[in-house]
Amino acid sequence: MTATHEYQSDFARKYFGQGLAEGEAKALLEVLSARDITVPDDIRSRILDCTDTEILRTWVRRAVTVGSADELFD
C-alpha cells in the first residue's frame, strides 16, 4: 500500500516544489539531448529557471516531437 504525503509547512512545500521543478527541467533537457536537439544557452536558462511544473511537463511532452528547441514554446 502506498500513501501520499502532503507537506504541512510552507518551507517544506517550497523546497519540495523546487525539487519537482528541477527534476522536470532536467528530464526535459535529457529528452532533447537524446534526440540530438541543440539547446542554446538562452533556452537552457529559460528551462532551468522555470518553476511551474505544469509548464515544464507540457514542454517535456512537446520535446518528444519538436524539431528544434525553439518549438517547445510555440
Q: Which range does the strand content fall in?
A: under 5%
**Would you list the SSEs in sequence order as H and E?**
HHH
Taking pLDDT < 50 over at least 5 consecutive residues as the criterion, the unreliable ranges are none
Helix/strand/pairing category: mainly alpha
Q: Alpha-carbon distance between the termini?
A: 41 Å
What is the strand tally?
0
> What is the helix fraction of residues, given as a range?
55-70%
Shape: elongated
Gyration radius, to the nearest Å?
14 Å
Largest sheet: none
What does this structure look like?
The protein has 74 residues and is an all-alpha fold. It has one domain (10-73). It is 61% helix and 0% strand. The chain has three helices and no strands. The longest helix has 25 residues, at 10-34. The termini are far apart. 14% of the residues are buried. The model has no long low-confidence stretch (mean pLDDT 85). This is Transposase. It comes from Amycolatopsis acididurans.
